[in-house]
Design goal:
With 189 residues, this protein is of the alpha+beta class. It has a single domain, classed as Rossmann fold, CATH 3.40.50. Helix content is 38%, strand content 24%. The protein is built from eight helices and four strands; from the N terminus they run αβαβαααβαααβ. Strands 1-2-4-3 form a four-stranded mixed β-sheet. Helix 3 packs antiparallel against helix 8. The longest helix has 15 residues.
Length: 189
Amino acid sequence: MIELAGADLRDVGVAEVDLQVMDAEHLDFPDARFDVLTAAFALFFLPDPGRAAAEFHRVLRPGGLVAVSTWGGEDERWGFEDDLLTAAGSPWLRALQQPFDRAEDVTDLLGAAGFTDLHVHEEETEIHFGSQQQWWDWHWSFSLRGILEQLEPAALDAYRDACFREMEALRTSDGYPVRLTALIVTGRG
């Protein structure tokens, strides 16, 4: 990701940038180093989000702006996926245990770290998959891939086929709709 970000920045003429990889729970920056801090769709990956939020607060100057995003509630039309994953023998369901999918979970986390003036913006969009295969390929492009990789090949095939059957009820002239909801929470350090 760092290499791709660097290439993208160079492509648009930004040469003086320092991209680093580090632990969000132990940021290697001095106190009050930044005016703005963003964390896009990262909180739910962190082992100790409270520690990371405290680090965000520490490296942000007083009055600085924090903005974090996370996925909101899932599209209820696709609720069958969780049931089918359970039936397939999945040992861990991110879709059932996804933290920070409620605005108050994010504001509570940031508030406990010392952030104030917290505001929530909910952004919804609906995407359409042109085919069942396009939807399936999409599932292999984000964190759900880790769950799918744990399934036995026969269970994986059965899960996919069962999802394809359930999806038919959702089909429209535009394809298979999925509503994505993002929560964007801003505040001050």
